[in-house]
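ok so for the tutorial part 2 we go from a plain amino acid sequence to predicted structure tokens. step 1 is just haveing the sequence, like this:
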Amino acid sequence: MRLHICVVGRLRKGPEKSLVDDYLTRCDRTGRALGLGPVNVVEVEDRKGGGMAAEAALLRRALPSGARLCALDERGQTWSSPEFAQKLAGWRDGGTQDMAFVIGGADGIDPALRAEAQDLMSFGAMVWPHMLVRVMLSEQLYRAASILAGSPYHRV
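step 2 — the prediction. this is what the tokens look like for a chain of 156 residues:
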């Protein structure tokens, strides 16, 4: 199952980019043997200032055709890391070929795009900067692959 992270905003050089790159490299190495990956990151920017609706249009164009959509949103479900790993395995085993995770911009995800998502996932009740959410998602994808591989990275 190919994994896609579709995000609003560009990640410039710095600590967040270094962390994302590191975790996604690890995820690709661990996940390939499990049928997870590669992880593709698609960044979009609304240069015309059209707000959430314009960002949603750009994100829709970035989504692979037929992809299962999981939007990261504060109203979403919170899963433990093992639960998230099982969700990924279930989507993969259920025939999902492309899994897209969507991270909105500073104002979040347009309600219409959020409604199109089959899954809503939250990293808790707090609101996180979208650049940190990208780091957290990348780490959780690697952690999920590690859990499924039986690696000692995840400790209970």
